[in-house]
Amino acid sequence: MPVLRPFRALRFDATSVGDLAAVMAPSYDAIDPVAHERLLARHPANVVRVDLPESRHGDEPDDRFRRAARSMAEWRSGAILHKDPHPSIYLYACDPVDSELPGVRGYFARLRLEALDGATGIEAASADAAGFDDRYKLLRATGVNTSPVVAVYDDPDDVTGGRLTAMSARTPEIDLVDEVGTRHRVWAVAADGGGETAAAVDALLGPAATGPVRVVAGRSTYDAALRYRDERRMSRSCEEDPA
After folding, report:
1. Model confidence, pTM
2. In terms of Cα–Cα distance, which of 168, 139, 190, 204 is closest to 8?
3. Which DSSP string corresponds to 148-167?
4. Is 122 helix (H, G, I), strand (E, B) or coil?
5. Which range (39-48, 120-129, 148-157, 172-181) has the least confidence?
6. Rounded Cα distance, 96 and 175, in Å
7. What is the distance of C-alpha 60 from the center of its chain?
8. Among the listed residues 218, 199, 229, 4, the one whose alpha carbon sits nearest the alpha carbon of residue 109
9. At CA 174, angle to CA 103 and CA 199, rounded to 5?
């Protein structure tokens, strides 16, 4: 069965970067060269610098991934990025502004890596071989998941929807509109305090844990993480419960 858990996210510090909208970017596979240049120019700490690092004239192989790792290290040491103090789940709402299109509701959590063979409770569409090498090299260079996979699961009683509504009744930590007019909101819910909050987190994760969980976007990212996991398992420095 799938295992889902809270995690300590790395998040941009608004007091350091200013407007959080200036450091956000679309999914790496939805950015064309023109948009890439625009995002690089928008802010020196725009996330595109690590999630889709630029190639420069005269680069040696994999130089762009090493630059991404240096940027990540500089941002962490310079308080541009901070690691949340408590393991949390992160509720997410995505709503088109001035549109009748439906919004998206979900949450970010960590998912234990398993082989995509159906027997583990995790399934996926066919592999995207074109993106695998880049995602693996980026993960290996930075040691950080810079973008998520997207997964869905069956919840016929809509437990998830009810929990998301109840848990997002307060003011979000992040509330911004991107350049195409989509509103993004994030609520961080600490899961290590016990009591009603911890119980609510367990209840939210429960339906997905019954499986199957189907990866519908980010297959290359998932496959890269599997390879990285296997590599780390061969190292003596591998953690007991890696993030």
Report:
1. 0.91
2. 190
3. --EEEE--TT-HHHHHHHHH
4. strand
5. 120-129
6. 13
7. 28
8. 4
9. 80
Q: Point out which residues pair with 7 in neighbouring strands.
A: 88
What burial class does residue 89 get, using C-beta atoms within 10 Å of its C-beta: 0-12 exposed, 13-18 middle, 19+ buried?
Answer: buried
At residue 118, what is the residue type? G
Are 102 and 30 spatial neighbours (Cβ–Cβ below 8 Å)?
no
Torsion angle of C-alpha atoms 23, 28, 31, 36, degrees rounded to 10: 50
pLDDT of residue 130: 66
- The whole-number average pLDDT for the span 224-235 is 89
Residue matched to tokens 């997905």 = 208
Number of H helices, E strands in the chain: 8, 11
CA atoms within a 13 Å half-sphere pointing along the CA-CB vector of 17: 23
- Between the two ends of the chain, the Cα-to-Cα distance in Å is 19
CA distance 149 to 110: 10
pLDDT > 80? residue 56:
yes
**Tokens linked to 117:** 């063979």
The values of phi and psi at residue 169, to 5°, are -75, -20
Phi, psi of 90 (to 5 degrees): -125, 105
Amino acid identity at 102: P
